[in-house]
Amino acid sequence: MNTHARSLAACLLAIASAAVIPAAFAQMPNTAAANTEQNARQHAISADALLEKDNIAGAVAEYREALRLNPKNALARLNLGMAYYNLKQAKAARAEWTKVTQMGDEKMTDKAEADLDQYPE
User: Fold this and answer.
1) Is 13 within a domain?
2) Secondary structure of the chain in the HEC alphabet?
3) Which residues constitute the domain of residue 71?
4) Residue 33: per-residue pLDDT
5) In-domain check, residue 11
6) For position 81, which CATH number holds?
7) How do residues 90-116 score in pLDDT, each as one tens digit?
8) Confidence check: pLDDT of 19 > 50
9) How many domains does the chain have?
10) Does some domain include residue 43?
11) Is residue 24 scored above 50 in pLDDT?
12) Is the full-model pTM beyond 0.90?
């Protein structure tokens, strides 16, 4: 292969690599994000279990950690609001329910609005 052909082959390889390698990396799962999401779910599950045992303060701590890891978890936020309400913290509860109504999840918004209507300050 002459020098010109080698240069052309190297350029084509560089162009192909520039298109293929980023696409391959884009398809790789983001392990850190997946771990964070899994940790957030675990904290929400722990919070639910604590609520069942009437450990409301513990549930609040777990829901808050779940939401720190994944602030978009509308169900955890809805449940955090109920936990706050059970602790006689109506203002905090209503703040969480109001946040849920702004998250764009229609089903969770309906539940949050029902809680806002049902539980006064």
Assistant:
1) no
2) CCHHHHHHHHHHHHHHHHHHHHHHHHHCCCHHHHHHHHHHHHHHHHHHHHHHCCCHHHHHHHHHHHHHHCCCCHHHHHHHHHHHHHCCCHHHHHHHHHHHHCCCCHHHHHHHHHHHHHCCC
3) 31-118
4) 82
5) no
6) 1.25.40.10
7) 999 999 999 999 999 999 999 999 999
8) no
9) 1
10) yes
11) no
12) no
